[in-house]
Amino acid sequence: MTPPAARRASGSPAKGAAAGRSAPRASSRVRMTARERREQLLDIGRKLFADKGFEGTSVEEIAAQAGVSKPVVYEHFGGKEGLYAVVVDREVESLLRSMTNALTATERSRELLEQAALALLDYIESSSDGFRILVRDSPVASATGTFGSIMSDVGTQVEHIMVAEFKSRGFSEKFAPMYAQMLVGMVALTGQWWLDVRKPRKDEVAAHLVNLAWNGLSGLEAKPRLESR
């Protein structure tokens, strides 16, 4: 007959193994803080909005890629519109900051044009997804504006370049704001084209932009007229 102590000893491993099998596994998912979750949702939303646009992106897809339920997205942003608005505001602020820095880096007119062109191309190169979002028509209100409004603001900032050039040539300064918008519009549209083709190199694109803008300025007519009229 097996002694009671032996029976107890022989039964212990089996019970231990069973207990080990039934013990729940520790979760491998790292719990995010509210700030980390918000940033994750912004990153995912930014990518989806750039690839699919606002209408083509759903809350379900954002939540699925984040590994959370739809209510989590609503909790942080109130819905897709709120998330989109924050993404747009961040991109506008980033672009405006880089353009403003470029326009205060020097007082020489030609260098200002060069720095402004390079600043926009730098932003396109480093934040392609953000630029794709900005150049689309925004379906929701943005606190800081959209691409069109920010380019208009930049145009206002470069008016002094045009005023100085007009003064040096004895031209009427009343058209300087209009020329500033023309100049910025030329750079912005070229940037949209370069976003996809990426040729020639960024510095070459900037050089050609300035070539057209600067040499065009040097040959301005005091009172231009349409030959067809």
UniProtKB/TrEMBL annotation:
Residues covered by region (Disordered): 1-32
UniProt keyword annotations, A-Z: DNA-binding, Transcription, Transcription regulation
HTH tetR-type domain sequence ranges: 35-95
DNA-binding region: 58-77
One GO-annotated biological process of the protein: negative regulation of DNA-templated transcription
Top-level taxonomic group: Bacteria
MF (Gene Ontology): DNA-binding transcription factor activity; transcription cis-regulatory region binding
InterPro entries the UniProt entry points to: DNA-bd_HTH_TetR-type_CS, Homeodomain-like_sf, HTH-type_TetR-like_transc_reg, HTH_TetR, Tet_transcr_reg_TetR-rel_C_sf, TetR_C_32
PANTHER family recorded: HTH-TYPE TRANSCRIPTIONAL REGULATOR RUTR, TRANSCRIPTIONAL REGULATORY PROTEIN (PROBABLY TETR-FAMILY)-RELATED
UniProt-recorded name of the protein: AcrR family transcriptional regulator
Organism (species): Motilibacter peucedani
